[in-house]
Prior knowledge:
The chain is elongated. The protein has helices at about 5-10, 20-60, 65-85, 105-110, 120-135, and strands at about 90-95, 140-145, 155-160. It has 5 helices and 3 strands. The relative contact order is 0.11. By secondary structure, it is mainly α. About 50% of the residues lie in helices and about 10% in strands. A 3-stranded antiparallel sheet has the order 1-3-2.
Amino acid sequence: METQTTPQEKDHPLGDETFMSADDLRAYTTELRLAKASKDVDSMSRADKARDELVKTLSARMELTPEKLQEITGNLLRKLRTAAEKGDTELMVMRFPNALCSDKGRAINNGEPDWPETLTGRPRQAYELWLDRLRPAGYGLAAMIVEWPRGMPGDIGFFLTWGDKRTH
């Protein structure tokens, strides 16, 4: 005779946990933890792959045609106006993995004055754009670690500053 399973039994492969022995409940809990860890590992693997692709993209310098500069400037001005209207005195304008620094962000984290020398790829290009065009207009630039995965430096943020908080 074939037994039928209820929808609840399908959701819980070990059946109704209210009638499990302590050993069954421990095994069930272990299975749930393993499934969650597997899902977390899959998520981390996808995140690592996406980060690697981002590093690859941001490692290549962008061709800064007059049209591209106008597009970047227009987008930036809109964001700056919105931030200023809210009373902000800084705006994060770029976020990138620490792999785009030759020292993985150590100089930025330690506030060393020569931190711009560690930049590579598009972050270096963004710094140069600030240096050539935005610094003369009175904007400051701050760089800081904005994410600390597993207690280690992760992503870095560039912040345009104005008002009293100008840096660099």
